[in-house]
Amino acid sequence: MATQGPDGLPFMKMHGLGNDFVVIDARAGSPAVGADLARAMGDRHRGVGFDQLAVIRKSGEADVELLFWNSDGSTAGACGNATRCIAAWEMARLGRARLTLRTERGVLEARAEGELTSVNMGQPILDWRAIPLARDVCTLHLPIAGDPAATGMGNPHLTFFVADAEAVDLPAFGAEHEHHPLYPQRTNVQVASRIGPDRLRMRVWERGAGITLASGSSSCAVAVAAARRGITGRSVTLVLDGGEIAVDWREDGVWMTGPTAHVFDGVWR
Questions:
Q1: CATH number of the domain bearing residue 213
Q2: Least buried of 12, 229, 239, 259, by fewest C-beta within 10 Å?
Q3: 166 and 243 fall within a common domain
Q4: Pairing between strand 116-120 and 52-57?
């Protein structure tokens, strides 16, 4: 892909389980990417539409560096499904089975697993200061109605384990808890219910984006919280609105494995 020119800014549209992204490859130049562009392109009626905007840049520490914006123009520290999508595209382009990607989470490793793509999202953040929370509380049992857990995966997360995730009024519930005062930087919100051994039904409200069909960092956060609570083991399948994803909390980090899709290429004029 080329840098922005007189004909516009080239981009790719990708998704992982319906969690969709616009991807701009800025390695050949420096297009002006920021909050205004994210809001304009993210508008599903007047723009392209996406949950997150991802920008690929050169890196001295990894094969590529990734920056993320939400559709409301705010920045995101991590985006697991976008990381997997970009890793799959870059590995296919280069004919490789492994790749490293620099994000705010550090240098992440990705692997091609047949038709699926895995990425190590790093170790979960469990200290209240680093998530971050507004005060010192137990991150496994927050003092919030519903007894949720807090986890950091590059983004802050708030996970509720409920009897039936389908029964939750997620538009109201997610919007309310995204701005909970315990989370000074807002939070992603998940509701999850156990539907089988090491199998969870999960729904997601993302800060800055609202309801999404899937979320990589949220999937990792739910899997970690479920393992810490003893609801599941450390290897779990999550059933999201957009499909299924596997998460495995290993000694070297939280690995997430699932499908990716490169939908189309376009030019933003």
A1: 3.10.310.10
A2: 229
A3: yes
A4: unpaired
Q: List b or e across 182-199, with b for residues whose CB sees 16 or more CB atoms inside 10 angstroms.
A: bbeebbbbbbbbbeeebe
Residue type, 5: G
Structural domains of the chain, count: 2
**Strand locations in 85-172, DSSP E?**
98-103, 106-113, 116-120, 149-152, 156-161
Range of the domain at 206: 149-251
- Measure the CA–CA gap between 78 and 247, rounded to whole angstroms: 16
Q: Which of 267, 265, 259, 262 is nearest to 89 (CA)?
A: 262
**193 found inside a domain:** yes
Q: Which spans in 80-141 are helix H?
A: 80-94
Pairing of strands 261-268, 9-16: antiparallel
Closest residue by Cα to residue 188 from 143, 148, 226: 148
Three-class SS of residue 39? helix
> Is the overall model pTM greater than 0.85, yes or no?
yes
Backbone angles phi, psi at 175, to 5 degrees: -60, -40
Contacts of 56 (CB under 8 A, 6+ apart): 23, 24, 25, 26, 27, 64, 65, 66, 86
Q: Is residue 120 part of a domain?
A: no
Question: Is the CB of residue 209 less than 8 Å from the CB of residue 70?
Answer: yes
DSSP state for residue 17 in the 8-state scheme? T
In a domain, 211, yes or no: yes
Max Cα-Cα span within the chain? 56
- Profile the chain (269 residues) by mean pLDDT over runs of 10 residues: 66 97 90 89 96 95 96 92 97 97 95 97 97 98 98 97 98 98 98 98 96 96 98 98 97 97 96
